[in-house]
Amino acid sequence: MCNHRENKMGLVVKTNRLNTVIQSLSLAEIRLIQVGIIDSRDKNQGLSSDKPLRIESSRYAEAFGVTRQTAYEVMLSAEKTLFERQFSFIDEYNDKVKTRWISQAKYIKGKGAIEIIFTPAVVKEITRIDGKEDFFTQYLLRQTATLNSVYSVRLYELIAQWRSAKNTPVFELEIFRGQLGLGVTDYKKMNDFKKRVLDLAVNEINDKTDLKVEYENVKEGRKIIGFKFTVHEKPKPKSKPAADARNADNGDMFTVDGLSDKQLGRIARNPQFIADYNHMVSSTSAAGQDEKAWEFEMINRLKKDASQFIKRPIHEYLAY
């Protein structure tokens, strides 16, 4: 059973109002905001409109399965464009508010990290977690970390808030297109929109996340004017005693069948995996001494004989 911290780890909480203005953000920008929200909570720092929030490239790399160098380059690019983004929303007083996502950004030389400061409006929207439960979207970062399409992430954020209700209201076509980040001329033909955007996002969500999603066309005459979604949570797998999990009937939980080299690399770099098995290798290739040597050795060990890694199911390390 997970402890309290593990249940909270990776939880993103944002107001639904904020979720309706993500349309202009790239996948990298959305991910930077996700990591910022999570880290502010997990480090007990809180969010502040005058206190910088540091995001390490190693943290981003771990969350999204990329190298630290790639993570740092992506973070710098996302921060630069995010700083220029503006958006508007209607506040609780029915007034229009125009703001930016971040008010300040700083590169930390030699540390592989950046520091950002969210604007007051964004901080307020992120941290207002004392209102009605259905006013917020809550989801685990790992549900969207493996999504490859920015449309999938945007759609997940838009519909996740309706998981309790099971059905969404009508998403009017033109507003919905904007919320998915499409320009006026992007995929104007309905067949192209469904194939390149909507069906792609729905299929990826159904394949990789905790939600099962279907949609129906809403028509005015013969013209499609919007979409309605049904949203269901997939059944959670039943937990089994550790002893039972190691028997022959459940042997696949401790194998690497079906995992790619990239996924094995993510497992080998996972901090929990390192903590569990760092004792198994020589000091010269132990994690922290030579990361590449550690990763190479552990990938080979996993491929050759995964039965020696039985502290927890191998696939669990992909979910951390």
Polypeptide structure, described:
This protein has three domains: 1-145, Winged helix-like DNA-binding domain superfamily/Winged helix DNA-binding domain (Arc Repressor Mutant, subunit A, Orthogonal Bundle), CATH 1.10.10.10; 148-232, Winged helix-like DNA-binding domain superfamily/Winged helix DNA-binding domain (Arc Repressor Mutant, subunit A), CATH 1.10.10.10; 242-318, no CATH class. The longest helix is centred in the middle third of the chain and has 19 residues, at 190-208. Helix content is 42%, strand content 19%. With 320 residues, the protein is α+β, with helices and mostly antiparallel strands.
CATH class of the largest domain: Mainly Alpha
Strand order of the largest sheet: 2-6-5
Count the helices. How many? Answer: 14
CATH architecture type of the largest domain = Orthogonal Bundle
Spans where pLDDT lies below 50 across 5 or more residues: 1-8, 129-136, 240-252, 283-288
Count of the separate structural domains: 3
Report the structural category. Answer: alpha+beta
Give the proportion of residues in helices: 40-55%
